[in-house]
Amino acid sequence: MISTDPQLIKNIVSNGERLDGRGMYDYRKITIEKGAVATADGSARVKLGNTEVICGVKFSVGEPFSDTPDEGVLMVAAEFVPLASPEFESGPPGEEAVEASRVVDRAIRESKVIDFKKLCITPGEKVWMVFVDIDVLDNDGNLIDAASLAAIAALFDAKLPGLKEDGKIDYDNKSDQGLQINGIPLSTTFAKVGDSIIADPDLSEAEAVDARLTVGTFDKDGDVLLCSMQKGGSVGLTVEELEKIIDLAISKGKELRKMVANA
Amino acid sequence: MISTDPQLIKNIVSNGERLDGRGMYDYRKITIEKGAVATADGSARVKLGNTEVICGVKFSVGEPFSDTPDEGVLMVAAEFVPLASPEFESGPPGEEAVEASRVVDRAIRESKVIDFKKLCITPGEKVWMVFVDIDVLDNDGNLIDAASLAAIAALFDAKLPGLKEDGKIDYDNKSDQGLQINGIPLSTTFAKVGDSIIADPDLSEAEAVDARLTVGTFDKDGDVLLCSMQKGGSVGLTVEELEKIIDLAISKGKELRKMVANA
Amino acid sequence: MISTDPQLIKNIVSNGERLDGRGMYDYRKITIEKGAVATADGSARVKLGNTEVICGVKFSVGEPFSDTPDEGVLMVAAEFVPLASPEFESGPPGEEAVEASRVVDRAIRESKVIDFKKLCITPGEKVWMVFVDIDVLDNDGNLIDAASLAAIAALFDAKLPGLKEDGKIDYDNKSDQGLQINGIPLSTTFAKVGDSIIADPDLSEAEAVDARLTVGTFDKDGDVLLCSMQKGGSVGLTVEELEKIIDLAISKGKELRKMVANA
Amino acid sequence: MNIVEFKRIDGRKHDEFRPIEARVGVLQKADGSAYFRLGNTVAIAGVYGPRKVHPRHEEQLDRAILRTRYNMAPFATTERGRPGYSRRSIEISMVTRQAINPVIFLEEFPKTAIDVHIEVLQADASTRCVGINAACLALADAGIPMRDLVASCSAGKVNGNIILDIAGKEDTEGEVDLPVAYYPKKKHVTLLQMDGIVTREEAKEIVKLAVGGTKKIYEAQKSALRKKYEIEGEKNDIY
Amino acid sequence: MNIVEFKRIDGRKHDEFRPIEARVGVLQKADGSAYFRLGNTVAIAGVYGPRKVHPRHEEQLDRAILRTRYNMAPFATTERGRPGYSRRSIEISMVTRQAINPVIFLEEFPKTAIDVHIEVLQADASTRCVGINAACLALADAGIPMRDLVASCSAGKVNGNIILDIAGKEDTEGEVDLPVAYYPKKKHVTLLQMDGIVTREEAKEIVKLAVGGTKKIYEAQKSALRKKYEIEGEKNDIY
Amino acid sequence: MNIVEFKRIDGRKHDEFRPIEARVGVLQKADGSAYFRLGNTVAIAGVYGPRKVHPRHEEQLDRAILRTRYNMAPFATTERGRPGYSRRSIEISMVTRQAINPVIFLEEFPKTAIDVHIEVLQADASTRCVGINAACLALADAGIPMRDLVASCSAGKVNGNIILDIAGKEDTEGEVDLPVAYYPKKKHVTLLQMDGIVTREEAKEIVKLAVGGTKKIYEAQKSALRKKYEIEGEKNDIY
User: Fold this and answer.
1) Residue E3 domain flag
2) How close does chain F come to C226, measured CA to CA in Å?
3) What is the maximal distance between C-alpha atoms in chain D?
4) Residue of F18, F80, F117, F130 to mutate for B, most B C-beta atoms under 10 A
5) ipTM score for this prediction
6) Does residue D4 sit within a domain?
7) Is CATH 3.40.50.1260 the right assignment for the domain spanning A6-262?
8) What is the interface size between B and F, counted as CB pairs within 8 Å?
9) Closest CA to C230 of C156, C147, C150, C135
10) What percent of chain C clears pLDDT 90, i.e. is strictly above it?
11) Span B41-65, pLDDT tens digits
12) Contact flag D207-B243 (C-beta cutoff 8 Å)
């Protein structure tokens, strides 16, 4: 793999430009294909430039956690499948995959756009388990945002399975009941390269990135609210930079939400 | 360990001979000792030449799988204990051990000689779990056939434990009820060395083997039927070679079944 | 780390002396601080010279083992946290940590000072699980005795949580009911260095130690009884040496028990 | 031999495949990649290598080592699957390696590893076959020198009828499933597994049907590769 | 902005910390160590290194590698925790490393590892902050050259009020928790995480409150280090 | 001391063993092997080495490393055991190594490993003793130079009586179990464990009974080795 010299990237970005010609706050081209996986209860394939992830939602019936006996359970997992990158290895998820799945999970969970009480079947005994599994097929950077887009699109695509009389899932008959989701929580990631801020860093830029801030936003009754933040990278951000990114994330979130809504 | 030159083996076999003087389609000497493990509910020790395996069957009471609520559960596991070979290592089973246990499992399961519905205690709740554990003590090649012989002999040897009033196993009082097994499914393995086919390859021959075909056969109402096949090795087999091995396996299976029946 | 030459230690000990000036059968200074962990149901921090361990007891409600349906369950685990020693590594417990937890567990369990039948809530269904977790913070040798002191002191410090009407633990309201413990089982460790016996070997002495004997003793109705023994080290002990250590352990156990009783 | 044609559950003829779709170059990062679909069974394969071997002790002085990893996405099956290795995936990874191994010029790349990762995205029977088909295309796409392609499919017996490419309800009702992989130039079967009860004659008939079926798979593979070079050819025209 | 002061559950002011306690040199075997307490949250950190790297392939030719391990003792939480790595501890170990990394002169110790082990002994919110505070003190105690200390604390929103250092009942009732780590000399936020719902303005206000709070933490850290050198100074006087 | 002889559940005297059976050379592939049986407890041991050390960093410059692995077959116990390492097998592997270590001339084989694998095929008490007995015979069978054999057995207390070689119902009813391993030439106890309640005097009495019992084990071991050389001698006569 020919990697790009980080110093070259830094120089380009310091001139307010990017290697692939994008504007500083532009995302790469996004395509969202809902229903991409016939075997899943809900799914989406998302391309963010050359980054590609696929997300499948599956439901099962399980026991609730003892501290939330009347709520369904959300489980988000990301697998960085080794075909996606020469650096990914087989085996249990590494810290990057763990972080991605947890950041995506928090944005969805904390926004409270899904009412988990509606996913209760029998309080204290049976609830819907919602498994959101994200497979990374191609890693060209900014996996968190791609995973976030795929996860929420797949959840919007999902239909609950029917239940048989014995309380087990009837795999032959899907219901047409979707999840009621009141808002579109999304992660948007900005990076600091030198003194500049750029949106949606790709893999060629990753080595040059000093710090990263992922901001989860969602819409509620016309307002935009934040639901999660996660800083990454081995250098710090000033408070001013943080505030600037928060503002950028709010406006970029609006753009991305339209794509999800229209997907 | 002094290993035999694969080319030497190839030369010998191409002359229609074998290093230990066996005929091309001859198995090594087989001994089957049922009841070899006093602590098991059924057991057998099998020697196939210098290959030695020991199989123990244990019963326990457990929950059925949700898709077969009225059937007992068969679990076959092979451990390639490191005392059996300088190459075996401690730790979770490697691919060879996994393959052996799965091939043995399939031959028994697919032949349907055991009616798993008869191993149901309370439908949907309690069934007999049949654990078939195979320990390899000495590896001189063709572990699959040795394991297959040991597994079926141990199952024939097995007696169900008694049940106490509370539904738990009464370890002090065995029943004299055996498993009803309607046929003897067995794996028979043939190998291709150059253009020749040989039965029951031993470890000195293993390096010279191009391909391997294991065929599971059993007897039903006087007929011989196939229940499983598994090709191994890094070279292919022609359809004619496959057909020849299927025919050889059927006649060799008859011989081996007599030994199991008389053990 | 500058380690002490084992031969030097051997020479000193053979003269009936020790590097830190202790008597042959003296323990290092012991401090026991009960209630050291606010979040635990019982706890103790123990310093044995520069060895420091912390033990926390936590209760939960769980299912009994099927062979003891009316008894609570004791689980002792020791983690050799890597901050305690340059040699400790992350990951599952090594053989030394496993041994320490099992020796501590046996001394408590076998002495029968805790009546596990009193920790039964509903026979066959619900019992108290008693988790005794030992964290090693500083390893300057003789971890078994330090862990043993901390475990029993933490058990004496423990108060059972209250139970809510639905049978779950009420974490907001602790009961003031302690465990009824009828005696103080303790491990005391002696080591053979050359022909001499020393008590409580520290880390500088460890390399010079030929053999180790840990003796668990407890008091019952004024008598001292043994409840466990464990020999360690790569050299043997004569029967006379064993007997001498048993006698030393009995008298040393009395001393240590006073410290636990007064802690 | 099934002279009177019967009705299959999904209306196919006894020797008819589900729709086949094959594409190469579907991933950006992998050195080679491919997508293969057989009805509702979908797999993607990505190839890395020849590259340095980690861990080093696996290195072979006289040839490349071939490593295969078959993995099922958790959402690929009716019930959600647990991520990570299972005994099933260990076995399939192994037979996949043995199936592909004969056609690769491993001896041309001593001391290297060629890694083939197969990800099953949708599972409706024959996942190992679809994985092998994708893997061979991905190897070719990566420019790994090969003697031939290996083509894989399965045949079996359902309600007494011997049919090609069991799928859907046929799979749950099926008595026998027999996947093969075939190396056409050498006329070699490089993978063969079977479970279920058959007579000697049925076994041979099913093998022949499956081996015959690989021809159509092979055509689909070659057509996908041709399309790649045509497109690349077109690209060359443009520049 | 919270001009009328409200009542917090435990009686603290909106920008008031729980009691802070910091000590260095609390362990004997570690090359450096520290204890940090914030109310009922207690962590100990131990540092080993710079030392040889195992496994060797992690070694960097131009700098030391920094490895952090955040671990929660099983008895630190209300319900007993399972020992060993969890997804949570993997994430926190990572963000802790990123929080500390900027202040260490890693380039001075090429081909070595600096290992920071954090053990949370009691958990009542802000465990990662307390761990980071202890870790920086332990690094200083080990004599590792540092550009500055990193100080960490959290702020959040409880019942609509924006407050510093959420703890106890506030934690379970809290809507938002936002931990930061701050590198004062450079005015850099080196850790920032958030969960919960806030407006843009609230987010900024909470960030400022948290960043402002780190000043007091920083003082406590420096005071603990001063105390160490005073005591060592006294010792020197004696000899 | 137990002057009036009492009745044991299986009719044995207080210092009587279950039937002992010992054989060497029972495996073909191992460099040395042995079978040891004490009543219903059966173990097989296999030895490989001295051989190269993997992983290399475990290598010792001045001596061989001794590695022991105690494993219980899943069918060896009343309830089926889970395959793989348990905390129990980790501990027993360790004390087994320490029990055997003193008698082996490890210093004669620097930079090598001697691997001793013990497989318990039937478990009716004293499995670690039987494993040690088999292991020493297997080491001798492998031609590893040894100072002596280590012999192992256990004694204990059942219903107040001090008896040798607890087994069967005695085991479940037993109050105390005390296994020892003994190195006769040096009069050294190389393994000693105990659980259960005893007085000081009882402890000493049980130790003596167990140590005394090792004599018969030792005889059985030597007899098994003699038989081997006799047979080998006979073989020599024939040729």
Assistant:
1) no
2) 5
3) 60
4) F80
5) 0.94
6) no
7) no
8) 93
9) C147
10) 85
11) 999 999 999 999 999 999 999 999 9
12) yes
